[in-house]
Amino acid sequence: MHWAEKLAEDIIARNPNKEEYVCAAGISPSGSVHIGNFRDIATSFYVVQALKKKGKKARLLFSWDEFDRLRKVPGNIAKIAEDFGKYIGMPYAYIPDPHGEKSSYAEYNEKEFETSLEELDIHPDYRYQAKEYTSGRYVEGIIYAVKKRFEIYDILMKYKTQDADEGEREKYYPLNVYCDKCHTDFTEVISSSEDGEEITFRCKKCGEEKTVKIRDYHYIKLVWKVDWPMRWGVEGVDFEPGGIDHASASGSYVVACDVAQNVFGITPPLFHGYGWLSIAGLGDMHSSTGNNITPAEVLKVYEPDMIRWLFAKYEPKAPFSFNFDDTIIRHYSEFDKGVEAYKNGEADEFYDSVFDMCLIHGKNTRSKVPFGVLASVAPIVDFKPEPVRELLGKIDVEFTKEDEERLLRVKNWITVHQPSKMYKLLTEKNVTYYNELDDTKKEAVKKLHDYIASQDSLKEKDIQQFIYSVINNPELSKKENMAIQQQYFKAFYNLLIGQDAGPRLYLFLAAADKKDYLFLLDF
Description:
CATH class of the largest domain: Alpha Beta
Number of strands: 13
Strand content: 5-15%
Oligomer: single chain
Number of domains: 4
Structural class: alpha/beta
CATH architecture of the largest domain: 3-Layer(aba) Sandwich
Number of helices: 22
Shape: elongated
CATH superfamily of the largest domain: HUPs
CATH topology of the largest domain: Rossmann fold
Radius of gyration: 30 Å
């Protein structure tokens, strides 16, 4: 059984007669949303899919926590806006966009991510928390939390190592109040009315002090571990994932559950922790530091179905990395084989569910030219579709209009992440290198040249068989022959492209026009 289907069963068991199940996710737009954050919404997305598969009505709810404060300036923003630090303490939704493109810093980061979700064919029911709070939607919850502030304080202190302080308890309010004069939350609540309807606050930044009615003053936000359970109740959330740290003994989810049950009187949603993602060579990603790779960047190299596939096949708690080296070729190959097995009814139960969920066009998804094949031949013709079509036609591989999207991703991968794979045939013979070869390798070069020259048409498998017949020694073991093969291939690559390694040689030789390279082997 797929992990999302198991979670769906657990959700239904908790509330079997609910008319519509709500699976939530949420992100603070503190910077460009990275691909690791995508796991939050992907987890809920697949649970919604599983619920629908079981005949249930389900909705994906996504909250932008844009009413949170700016805590620090991301490194990438500091490079384009030196004075951005002046906005620390202000809600993201009220900070100008340093790029000058959107109405706010929050909107810039939100729309960047939402555009990627559109491409991934994921369409949540959005909640923009600045709008929700300032509309007065949460007023009753805020007033109730003020009246219950001592109970909330006692719950929070249960999860802290230090002892409760009576003086601190008297001063505690579960609120972040934004000053309507300087728009920051460098404020302190001085007092409140007995009914919780009014508070008096002082701004430590600008000196503003005033008494306000909570029903009229909508620049008040509940602190995170109170805000979260309050919204669970308002939205009727049944499931929400989060980082595995949230479910630790004193993590946010555990504390929020206590507040939900013992303050708001609601049953917390089912929770499932997920592991962190990283980019090889970059480490863990963080939006607030600018150290990240966005879904938009990943989509330049990975197809939407493939990104959905990776997140569907890994149980959320299992960490994995995005890596822009040759791992991508393996990912594409595994994905393509899986699609074929699924279409032919040969996938097992788990992978049948994976592909049910990840393929945007289902079993109508078309088989495409393998990514590795395109990576081998496309650089020869500068990634131009028509010449690629002609090259692949020589090895009986059909290249259609749909394959052009994959070709573009191959181009992005090689030109941006793997420029060493920009294989170009040499324009002159590599005489110096040839003269340094031993006689056996020179003889192999001659045999390869003569074989190619004698053939009217070249097939990849025929070239492969010929090369191995020349360089393999039947008296040696497979392991010994592989070591010898590496030396011969190194020689062939240096004579053709001037590098120690290159594309799949027999495919390269079969696809390219031999008149463009045969002279490079002629000594």
